[in-house]
Amino acid sequence: MTRNQIAKKKHRLGQDELLWSATAFGWRAVNRLQAGSFVYCFLLTTFLGSHSAEAQLNIGPPKEVENVTVDQKLGGQVPLDVALTDSLGRAVKTGYYFDSRRPVLVTLNYSDCPVLCNVQLNALVETLNKVDLALGGDFQILTVSINSKETTERIRETKSKYVSMLTNQPGAANAWHFCTARETSIKRLADSLGFRYTFDAKTGQYFHPAMLAFVSPEGVISRYSLDVAFPADQIKLSLLDASKGTIGSPVDQFVMWCFSYDAERGSYVLVAWRLMRLGALLTVGILLVTLVPYWIGRRRNAVTSELLVSPTQVPAAP
Question: Which of 7, 30, 135, 203 could be cross-linked to 169 through a Cys-Cys bond (beta carbons 3.0 to 4.6 Å apart)?
C-alpha cells in the first residue's frame, strides 16, 4: 500500500470516527438536552453523513438551523379561524378545538420526520399514560402537520399509531386531534406560537424544534415545554394552570396554589412564602379553636363565682 493510499485510509477512518461520535452525541442529547440542542446535534450528524469526504467542524450552528427555535409568546392569542383539515378529511378551524372549558395542548410535527417528532410524541405518550388527568374529559391535544403536502390518509395513520399507544387514556381517539393545513395556515399558526422552522430542499426534511404549547380553553398561550422528555407532574401542573380552574379536583387546585412557574428553570417550583403563610394561618386557626372555648369557659366560671360570693340584697325593714 502506497503512502498516499495509507493517508487516504486514515482520513476516511477519521471522518467515520467523527461521524459516529457526532451521531452518539446527538442521541445522548435526546435525554439530556433541550430540543434546540438536539436539532443542532441531529443536523450536525446529517451534515457530516452527507459530506463525509470533506466534513469539518465549524464553530457555531449550521446556517440551516440559525432560526430554528421557539419564541415564547406567553399570554398571546392563538387565532381561532385558522383553516385545518382533520384526520377524517373534514374542513375545520382552530376555534373548533377551544370550547371554553378544557385546555388544549398544541404540538407541531409531521408524519415523515426521521427522528425528532417520533422521539417527542413517543415521550408524550409515555407521560400521558402516567398523568392522572383524562384526555377528553380534562383536556385535548391538537397536533398540526408542518408539511403542507401531507395527505389526510397519512395523518390518519399517524393518529392511529399514537392513539393505540395510549393504554390509560380511553378517550384519546376523540380528544387527540391530528390535522393538516395549507402552507399559509401552517405559517400563521406557527407564527402565533413563536414556532420557527425551515425546510431543507436537499433532504426534503424540515428542521424544527420540539415544542408543547399549553393553551387555555379560550386560546391564550399559558406555558411551553421545549424538552423532549415531559415529567408527568409538570404536564399536570401546566394543564391545571392553563385551565384557570376549570379542571382538576379541589386538592389539585390547592396543589396548584402551592406551586409557581419558574421561567428560568422552565418548570414549576414549590413557593416557600405561600407555605409559610398557610402555616401561619393554620397555627392561628388551631390557637383560636383551642383557646376560644377556654376563654369562654373561664368567663362563665368567673361570672358564676361572682354571683355566689356577692351578698344577697335584702330589702330594709320598715
Answer: 135
Q: What is the pLDDT of residues 84-125, one digit of tens each?
A: 999 999 999 999 999 999 999 999 999 999 999 999 999 999
| Domain coordinates in residue numbering, the chain | 3-65, 83-248
Calculate the alpha carbon distances from 234 to 131, 176, 255, 261, 268 in Å. 9, 19, 12, 10, 7
**Strands across the sheet containing 176-180:** 91-93, 83-86, 176-180, 140-145, 104-109, 212-215, 221-225
pTM: 0.67
83-248 has CATH 3.40.50.720 classification: no
Distances (CA, A) of 168 to 126, 131, 205, 259: 10, 9, 33, 26
